[in-house]
Design a protein that fits this description.
The complex is a heterodimer of chains A (482) and B (379). With 482 residues, chain A is of the alpha/beta class. Chain A has 2 domains: 75 residues, no CATH class; 295 residues, Aldolase class I (TIM Barrel, Alpha-Beta Barrel). In chain A, a hairpin with a 4-residue loop joins strand 3 and strand 4. By secondary structure, chain B is an alpha/beta fold. Chain B folds into 2 domains: 92 residues, Phosphohistidine domain (Glucose Oxidase, domain 1, 3-Layer(bba) Sandwich); 265 residues, TIM Barrel (Alpha-Beta Barrel), CATH 3.20.20. In chain B, the strands form 3 sheets. Chain B has an 8-stranded mixed sheet. A 7-stranded parallel sheet of chain B has the order 9-10-11-12-13-14-15, covered by helices on one side. In chain B, helix 7 links the parallel strand 13 and strand 14. Chain B is globular. The chains are: A alpha/beta (482), B alpha/beta (379). The interface between A and B is medium-sized, with 26 and 28 residues.
Chain lengths: 482, 379
């Protein structure tokens, strides 16, 4: 063949000088606007570096070699391979009760009515039957609430049964308990240790902020959480306890203090999360709420602090940036329920509520608590696996969340790194499919990806820190002493 | 160190391959496989049922026993080493038990003709060597840690190559095999599948990749279509579970896109366990292409730092071969390996007093004339 032809790609005028081009597998290249114009007009000279760059990254082909097609196919297949295992993460709401009364909490109840809000033994057994129907090569069971330790008997039953069953069926299985740690006692720790359970908790920042966000009797949530973290690390190992934070209006002014609090208490990761527009959070939006723009300003300041801390030799990973960077900089697959295409609701993760109702996601469960049962997939007592996971509700969720077919997403340069969230868009607009120009989901992810690209391009310190988050090693390579 | 020497021979009617022994052997079958090594014409025992006698210096008086004598440079031979002696008096050390650098040179033929080839291929059919290789494998000490399989292009013997690997698995199950191949024939999926099916417990294929663009790679190896064959071959090998190491030779044609090549490897060949960045060996065809290939290693340290960082960021290991430590940027020195085989490495007068001499691989014997301006003793 003479000349060259284009392979599929997306692009964005990134700044005054350069166009960002992204191929189907998420590899990207910055090209000067002039060169880019020549490239798409097929006027680029094969003797230029930019031609070779575009060719090597599979934006163009100029011979009948099978290489670009074979490699692109392999890379796209690899990137989408998270879909192959089907539902891996199974969340159990073992109790709706909680002794905290956080203003942003979606659904918990302060109540002593065990029979009404706790998962029963029979419901747990039925839900486990469904878990073990999943073909996923690795099953992850996450026990949450409410506060799951309020129904520890059920936590124990589920873990013991699931472990025994996994051994019998030779399945790989992992357990996480999401807890505020306030009720953690030594017997529980001994049990978690025996079963290799990881703990996930909430730490919103310094004591004043944390305790204001997370009231409980005695107003001692911060102290109890950190005491629990210390004891859990001792009993289970330092890497078995993680924390995430929720950003409230009061957090916005103190990103540095929040980050420093994580470092002070020896955490190696932090997950900077905005409020979700569900459940009680929506009702208290006036007190707690803020605009997406305000959250992003907060995020950028916090991320700057995190980068500086890493550059000084202390590892602290920001989990959301790490997820996006893995997609941008590596060939590997990363499923993340709330940011993948198609969305992970139901096919990546599923929620078994205390009463046996099965929801496509935790957000779907919260929506139901607001009396909208749009994403109820079925009930563990009444419905078969095939009906729950093969039914019209889940099919609609999947069909509505293929970003490649969503107007405004399909031609976005960031598509290979992004995803769709039909539950979020339904909750905020009543439509599973986003209206991209007004979507806060779009605003957030578009901004964050662009911000990370800018840092990668102009800030070598940030770049080295980001790469260190993608390796297992602790410290940026730049900091190595030869 | 010399691996071959011309001796005077008598009674050697075909190539005889055997194990060297300095001490008399009790076992009759072992004697039949052994070259008895003799110093100063003194026979330690009755030599009659040995494979033959190797004499350093003057020959002892024997009759009706194959004899090679007049050896001087091979005087280092010792128990367990394997030698071949042919009717013309060529004595070749095939295997030295004390060395970490043993290899089998499978064939001198090749389907590429790399601009910097250190062992230019020969066109004639040498497939009759296979018989010798099988015997070679059978005589090697099974305690050998590592064995190289090299060429030429060892896969050119196709089924013969597969049979060699299978024989190594059978006779030397605890010996790591390191095969140097251009990987082009694994473009044929079935060939890769057959190699995978042998399931050798400790096999690595070292395969060169010189560019992220086909035209440049094909030019360097002087074979059109080689890039496509090698890259798709790499994917086939991974599919059938064969472990891969990539090898990049550094010279004036590979340096300008070295970072891009590293990115290409990280995105398209992430299954490669290891990437070796190799200094140019100044022997063979390189001299004919010196104008096109030579660049002082002192002038590509920044590119090499970037490329090794990209590889290591991708979670793969990177090493630097064939470089003197004084030439490398300090950050690269921990990645340097003493890669030059013990029989062809030397040091220079300037190296005297260098504090890192023990860790440095030194020079190829052939590479002391054209060298970096950065050579110096390190404090």
């Amino acid at each position: 063949m003479s000349g060259y032809r284009l392979l599929p790609f997306r692009f964005l005028r990134f700044d005054d000088a350069r166009t960002l081009a992204v191929n189907e597998a998420g590899e990207f290249l910055f090209v000067a606007h002039d060169d880019f114009a020549r490239f798409v007009r097929r006027e680029l000279s094969p003797n230029t570096d930019v031609y070779l760059d575009l060719k090597a990254k599979h934006f163009l082909f100029d011979s009948d070699s099978a290489v670009p097609f074979e490699l692109l196919a392999t890379k796209i297949r690899t990137k989408k391979s998270f879909l192959g295992g089907f539902t891996s993460l199974h969340l159990f709401v073992v109790s709706l009760r909680c002794e905290h009364s956080c203003s942003y909490c979606q659904v918990s109840r302060v109540s002593s009515d065990r029979t009404r809000y706790d998962m029963s033994e029979e419901t747990a057994r039925r839900a486990l039957d469904l878990v073990f129907r999943s073909p996923a090569p690795l099953l992850k069971i996450e026990l949450q609430g409410g506060e799951p330790l309020l129904n520890f008997e059920r936590v124990r039953q589920i873990i013991v049964d699931a472990r025994e069953r996994a051994e019998r069926e030779r399945r790989a299985i992992e357990f996480v308990v999401t807890t505020n740690l306030a009720l953690l006692d030594d017997a529980m720790l001994a049990f978690f240790r025996e079963y290799g359970v990881c703990l996930s908790t909430s730490l919103d920042g310094p004591a004043a902020l944390h305790d204001a966000n997370r009231p409980r009797p005695g107003n001692d949530s911060h102290a109890r959480t950190l005491d629990g973290v210390r004891r859990a690390r001792e009993a289970l190992g330092p890497d078995r306890v993680a924390a995430l934070m929720t950003t409230t209006r009061a957090s916005l002014q103190m990103p540095e203090e929040i980050v420093d609090e994580y470092v002070r208490h020896g955490f190696t990761s932090i997950f900077l999360r905005p409020l979700s527009p569900y459940g009680f959070a929506l009702r208290s939006a006036r007190a707690n709420g803020y605009t997406t723009r305000e959250f992003l300003d907060f995020y950028v300041r916090a991320l700057d602090r995190i980068i500086a801390i890493n550059a000084a030799g202390t590892r602290l990973v920001e989990s959301y940036a790490q997820l996006l960077l893995t997609r941008m900089l590596t060939p590997f697959a990363t499923g993340y329920v709330d940011l993948q295409s198609p969305a992970g609701a139901g096919i990546g993760a599923v929620v078994y509520n205390y009463d046996g109702d099965v929801y496509a996601s935790d957000e779907a469960r919260m929506l139901a608590e607001m009396h909208d049962r749009r994403f109820l997939l079925g009930n563990a007592h009444r419905d078969r696996y095939e009906t729950i996971f093969g039914g019209a509700t889940l099919r609609t969720i999947v069909e509505s969340s293929v970003a490649e077919s969503i107007l405004g997403c399909a031609d976005c340069a960031f598509l290979p790194w992004c995803g769709a969230d039909p539950v979020y868009h339904y909750a905020t607009t009543g439509d599973l499919v986003p209206h991209v120009p007004t979507s806060a989901f779009h605003e957030k992810n578009f901004f964050l990806i662009r911000h990370l690209l800018s840092l990668l391009e102009r800030d070598t310190t940030a770049r080295d820190v980001f790469w260190s988050w993608l390796r297992e090693e602790a410290v940026p390579l730049q900091a190595e002493v030869a | 160190m010399k691996l071959h020497e011309l001796a005077r021979v008598s009674g050697v009617e075909r190539t005889l391959i055997g194990r060297v022994t300095r001490t008399p052997l009790a076992d009759a079958r072992a004697r039949a496989d052994a070259w008895l090594l003799v110093d100063d014409s003194v026979l330690p025992c009755d030599p009659r049922d040995y494979l033959g006698i190797l004499a350093i210096g003057e020959p002892p008086h024997v009759e009706n026993v194959p004899l090679a004598h007049g050896l001087r440079q091979l005087a280092y031979l010792d128990d367990g080493d394997v030698v071949a002696v042919d009717p013309f008096g060529n004595v070749r050390a095939l295997y030295r038990r004390a060395s970490q650098h043993n290899f089998i040179l499978v064939t001198e033929q090749c389907n590429s003709l790399c601009l910097m080839c250190s062992q230019p291929p020969k066109a004639h059919d040498d497939s009759d060597r296979l018989v010798e290789h099988f015997r070679h494998i059978d005589l090697i000490d099974p305690a050998t840690a590592e064995l190289g399989i090299t060429g030429g292009e060892p896969t050119l013997f196709r089924d013969g190559f597969l049979a060699l690997i299978a024989r190594c698995k059978e006779r030397l199950p605890s010996t790591a095999l390191h095969v140097l191949t251009n990987g082009r024939l694994f473009y044929y999926r079935r060939f890769a599948e057959k190699l995978g099916a042998i399931a050798h417990p400790d096999l690595v294929l070292g395969i060169p990749l010189y560019s992220d663009v086909d035209t440049l790679h094909d030019h360097i190896v002087q074979a059109r279509g080689a890039f496509e064959e090698t890259v798709l071959g790499l994917h086939h090998l991974d599919r059938y579970g064969v472990r891969i190491e990539l090898r990049v030779v550094l010279h004036a044609l590979t340096i300008p896109r070295l970072g891009r090549l590293a990115e290409f490897i990280a995105r398209n060949l992430p299954f490669a366990a290891h990437v070796a960045f190799m200094g140019l060996e100044m022997v063979g065809l390189v001299h004919q292409h010196l104008d096109e290939l030579w660049i002082d290693p002192a002038d590509y340290q920044r590119e090499l730092v970037d490329a090794t960082s990209i590889i290591r960021n991708a979670g793969m290991s990177a090493s630097v071969y064939n470089h003197q430590l004084c030439v490398l940027a300090p950050r690269l020195r921990p990645l340097a390996r003493k890669s030059i085989s013990d029989w062809k490495n030397v040091y220079l007068p300037q190296c005297n007093g260098c504090s890192t001499l023990g860790a440095c691989g030194g020079f190829f014997q052939s590479g002391t004339k054209i060298r970096s301006r950065a050579i110096q003793a390190l404090a």
